[in-house]
């Protein structure tokens, strides 16, 4: 029953056996023990499992592992070397864009693709751009700021102030 | 913000970036579903398709034929160990697994244990259960009809579906007032059943070690210590006494009250692990989470206010019908069946009130948790803030003016409320004024007047709420008899760096940063050098956990008190080192110096080092302290929120144009974190105001039990929140703080509802129940002939 597939995750090639029904998210989390990608629902609604598949942000709970055969996956673990930060990670930290951290990996992976296509998104474009990812803690204000910060940083521009506007 | 410490020390008032973020950002958080133990088995749960039915048979034979399915556990199996029922926090009883009857749709019926997640699900599909459906009781009002079936036939002598009656205030005085008052307004309100829906669902890994007779329970719990005690109380008879139980609450992906209760899945996992001697993982999926875990709210409230024609509020009267589902599994302090609903007299100066509540059983899931709110405060605030607006509308007074006229004044604190609370401090006039100035309130009122002339719909809604948090003083507050103190233990190492442990458990609130800041403030040790740990009952001191905005008021206070014990010790050591008397020493952040000779000083790091290397003879060596803080009173944060909405008079789309929130949570530990808490709470206030409601049909089928149809606000629905603060320190709290995590969830819904009703009030609308959807508004516009 099991199928052999080859999948490149964060630059490393893995040859693995999966059941045809195995979801990509379960391959990543359970077989390959990369638990940074999370599961928050069973209807492809929350986006906690968002990863990049051949550079496109997708919900890995909605893709079968065998559909990723021969493809390249990037997860939160692949954003930066240990101890270093990708601009999106830095933006989330500097702008307090996370609280419990559960939606954060998916939110960041979505934001990475968003910024790739649109390096200078407006607030509205960011809000629509992350509308497939649910956050229950932050109220989204600071996630928007975090993505703007990362956009500036990735272009080598001056980053916006990260001081809270709580006056 | 004024800070006593430098940014490097990072005490109170600094917007330090969070210490916990690095692991979350790297994907290295450790949530319960990330726990993987050798030999671990997976559990899935068979659930009832019916709201009320007899179980005629459970046939597991096909399931057990599936390779990898290890066992199927039913209520009859648990009955042998007397584990088929468990107590609730409110002294009711709840089934772990049923032996004969299911009481709500999606109730646990049997558990399937298998070698992996997918096989467990296969097994679940293969279990055949034969039911005999019965007519359920869904409407709480009909639940009290004499002809309604008695649901809790397990309770001997029970002849109806009434659970309890509660009341507070002066009934006769209130009746007399309402008979004689110039103006009386009344509205019927439903605060609907909703779900916290933290993005991480609930789950556990129960790991029973037969050799050592020891249970390690990894669990999504906001209150690990209390859970350990509960496990020992429930399972002590099979040998799991409290020293044999370790509860570990790892990183939690949002709690909001939904991770306070003990759900059947946890208990089944423990029982199975105990029986098979292997680790059992149970992680519910989202649909199970929405359909079976504790709900919040579901109060039907008749709210009344009495006053004078010129706007003086004289009294309030609230009557509640509480739908608890099939058992009262509320998460309240034991003596408070309606939680702290009695804060519902609000921020206004009057002395007459009466509140009463009746709770009933229905064939719905049990619960009654907070949804980011201190024990039923949201229901109370909604009632008072809506009825206050209703009163303003009745007498034709601006709701801002009416509130300013009736606020308890700053110099009236401490203020005794008609329901018995002593509000610690507040400056309600300043908060509302700041919100109005930020918004340009009177200009908006002019704009609204102009727009009405043109037939455009715009509304402005105010909510000026008083919260009640920090439960609580031991004279009144306990859970299952355990007093609601909380704790901190600080150990400072010889090199002056520290570890601090707490009885609470962060679920995103940022305790690893804010607790370190409190200690930094008190001892001058940089927050960066203070490691904070929570959630492991083997290492942390006992505490009641994190919910009801209690962490800063209780454990935060304990941190300051423990640090002050250490400062006292530090003073003795400094006197020894400097060869002066203690009276000659003065404290400045991070060091003691000799009065009049500031060059003679010892830093906290030098003092701590001496505590290990050169401590005075007769003094205990080392540098550590523990404090269990029993608060003398609750704290009373407040806020003034104003919402501006525009409603499309053709599509009825409701757009929040602006929302200004001014919060007063006393002294602020970390403004960045407080603001983040306010943002998040506001979106969780928006959610029930406009989107969320768990809906059941008359057969008890849940109609929106998945994320496809239970609508959490996304970044698109959530507006750009405008936030600010005033500071009125709590006079009794060691650092003058009050707690903030839930204020915005409590305060936002009535501001939004008031704004929408205000937009429609000239059409004769006086009240609308939340969630106020475009369809509800469209129906009103249609009735009034504005849209066809």
Question: Could you please describe the fold and organization of this structure?
Answer:
- Chain A has 167 residues and is α+β, with helices and mostly antiparallel strands.
- Chain A folds into two domains: 3-78, Ubiquitin-like (UB roll) (Roll); 87-154, [2Fe-2S]-binding domain (DNA polymerase, domain 1).
- Chain A is built from five helices and five strands.
- Chain A starts with a strand and ends in a 13-residue tail after the last helix.
- The model of chain A has no long low-confidence stretch (mean pLDDT 97).
- With 788 residues, chain B is α+β, with helices and mostly antiparallel strands.
- Chain B folds into three domains: 32-134 and 202-283, Aldehyde oxidase/xanthine dehydrogenase, a/b hammerhead (Aldehyde Oxidoreductase, domain 3), CATH 3.90.1170; 385-471 and 634-783, Aldehyde oxidase/xanthine dehydrogenase, molybdopterin binding domain (Aldehyde Oxidoreductase, domain 4); 486-629, Aldehyde Oxidoreductase, domain 4 (2-Layer Sandwich).
- Helices cover 28% and strands 25% of the residues of chain B.
- Chain B has a seven-stranded mixed beta sheet, with helices on both faces. In chain B, strands 9, 10, 15, 16, 17 and 18 form a six-stranded mixed beta sheet that branches.
- The radius of gyration of chain B is 28 Å and the shape is globular.
- The model of chain B has no long low-confidence stretch (mean pLDDT 97).
């Amino acid at each position: 029953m099991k199928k052999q597939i080859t999948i490149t995750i964060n630059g490393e090639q893995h040859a693995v056996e999966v059941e045809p029904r195995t979801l990509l998210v379960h391959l990543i989390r359970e077989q390959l023990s990369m638990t940074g990608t999370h599961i928050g629902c069973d209807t492809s609604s929350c986006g906690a499992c968002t990863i990049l598949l051949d550079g496109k942000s997708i919900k890995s709970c909605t893709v079968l592992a065998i559909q990723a055969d021969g493809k390249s996956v990037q997860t939160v673990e692949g954003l930066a070397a240990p101890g270093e930060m990708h601009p999106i990670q830095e933006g989330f930290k500097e702008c307090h864009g996370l609280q419990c951290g559960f939606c954060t990996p998916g939110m960041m992976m979505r934001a990475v693709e968003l910024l790739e296509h649109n390096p200078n998104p407006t607030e509205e474009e960011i809000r629509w751009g992350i509308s497939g990812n649910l956050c229950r803690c932050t109220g989204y204000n600071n996630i928007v700021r975090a993505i703007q910060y990362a956009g500036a940083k990735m272009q080598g521009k001056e980053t916006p102030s990260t001081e809270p506007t709580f006056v | 913000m004024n800070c006593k410490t430098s940014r490097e020390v990072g005490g109170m008032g600094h917007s330090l970036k969070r210490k916990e973020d690095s692991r979350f950002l790297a994907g290295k958080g450790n949530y319960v579903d990330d726990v993987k133990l050798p030999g671990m088995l997976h559990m899935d749960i068979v659930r009832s398709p019916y709201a009320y039915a007899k179980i005629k048979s459970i046939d597991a034979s096909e399931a057990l034929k599936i390779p990898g399915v290890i066992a199927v556990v039913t209520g009859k199996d648990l009955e042998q160990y007397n584990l088929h029922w468990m107590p609730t926090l409110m002294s009711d009883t709840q089934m772990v697994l049923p032996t004969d009857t299911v009481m709500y749709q999606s109730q646990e019926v049997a558990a399937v244990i298998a070698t992996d997640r997918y096989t467990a699900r296969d097994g679940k599909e293969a279990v055949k259960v034969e039911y005999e459906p019965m007519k359920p009781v869904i409407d709480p009002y009909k639940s009290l009809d004499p002809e309604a079936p008695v649901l809790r036939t397990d309770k001997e002598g029970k002849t109806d579906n009434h659970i309890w009656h509660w009341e507070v205030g002066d009934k006769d005085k209130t009746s007399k007032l309402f008979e004689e008052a110039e103006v009386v307004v009344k509205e019927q309100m439903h605060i609907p059943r909703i779900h916290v829906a933290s993005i991480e669902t609930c789950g556990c890994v129960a790991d029973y070690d037969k050799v050592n007779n020891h249970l390690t329970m990894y669990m999504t719990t906001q209150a690990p210590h209390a859970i350990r005690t509960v496990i020992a109380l429930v399972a002590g008879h099979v040998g799991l006494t409290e020293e044999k139980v370790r509860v570990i609450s790892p990183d939690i992906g949002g709690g909001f009250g939904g991770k306070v209760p003990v759900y059947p899945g946890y208990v089944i996992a423990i029982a199975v692990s105990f029986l098979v001697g292997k680790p059992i993982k149970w992680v519910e999926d989202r649909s199970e989470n929405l359909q079976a875990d504790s709900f919040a709210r579901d109060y039907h409230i008749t709210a009344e206010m009495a006053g004078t024609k010129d706007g003086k509020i004289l009294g309030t009267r609230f009557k509640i019908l509480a739908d608890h589902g099939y058992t009262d599994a509320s998460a309240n302090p034991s003596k408070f069946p309606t939680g702290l609903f009695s804060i519902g007299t609000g921020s206004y100066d009057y002395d007459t009130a009466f509140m009463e509540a009746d709770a009933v059983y229905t064939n719905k899931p049990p619960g009654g948790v907070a949804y980011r709110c201190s024990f039923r405060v949201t229901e109370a605030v909604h009632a008072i803030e809506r009825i206050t607006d209703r009163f303003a509308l009745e007498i034709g007074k601006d709701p801002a003016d009416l509130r300013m006229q009736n606020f308890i004044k700053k110099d009236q604190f401490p203020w005794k409320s008609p329901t018995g609370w002593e509000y610690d401090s507040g400056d309600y006039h300043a908060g509302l004024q700041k919100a109005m100035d930020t918004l340009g309130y009177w200009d908006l009122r002019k704009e609204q007047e102009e727009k009405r002339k043109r037939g455009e719909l715009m509304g402005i809604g105010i909510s000026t709420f008083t919260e009640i948090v920090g439960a609580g003083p031991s004279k009144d507050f306990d859970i299952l008899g355990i007093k609601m103190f909380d704790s901190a233990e600080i150990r400072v190492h010889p090199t002056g760096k520290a570890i601090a442990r707490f009885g609470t458990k962060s679920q995103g609130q940022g305790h690893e940063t804010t607790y370190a800041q409190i200690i930094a403030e008190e001892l001058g040790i940089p927050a960066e050098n203070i490691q904070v740990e929570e959630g492991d009952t083997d290492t942390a001191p006992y505490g009641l956990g994190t919910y009801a905005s209690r962490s800063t008021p209780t454990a935060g206070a304990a941190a300051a008190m423990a640090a002050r014990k250490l400062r006292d010790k530090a003073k003795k050591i400094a006197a020894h080192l400097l060869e002066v008397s203690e009276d000659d020493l003065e404290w400045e952040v991070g060091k003691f110096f000799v009065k009049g000779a500031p060059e003679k000083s010892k830093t906290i790091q030098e003092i701590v080092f001496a505590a290990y290397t050169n401590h005075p003879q007769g003094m205990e060596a080392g540098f550590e302290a523990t404090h269990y803080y029993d608060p003398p009173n609750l704290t009373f944060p407040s806020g003034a929120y104003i919402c501006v909405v525009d409603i499309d008079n053709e599509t009825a789309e409701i757009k929040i144009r602006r929302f200004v929130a001014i919060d007063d949570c006393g002294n602020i530990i970390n403004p960045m974190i407080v603001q983040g808490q306010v943002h998040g709470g506001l979106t969780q206030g928006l959610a029930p105001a406009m989107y969320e409601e768990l809906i059941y049909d008359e057969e008890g089928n849940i109609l929106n039990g998945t994320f496809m149809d239970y609508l959490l606000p996304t970044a698109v629905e959530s507006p750009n929140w405008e936030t600010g603060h005033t500071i009125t320190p709590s006079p009794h709290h060691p650092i003058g703080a009050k707690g903030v995590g839930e204020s915005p969830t409590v305060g936002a819904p009535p501001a939004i509802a008031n704004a929408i009703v205000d937009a429609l009030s000239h059409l004769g609308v006086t009240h609308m129940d939340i969630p106020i959807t475009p369809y509800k508004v469209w129906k009103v516009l249609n009735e009034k002939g504005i849209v066809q």
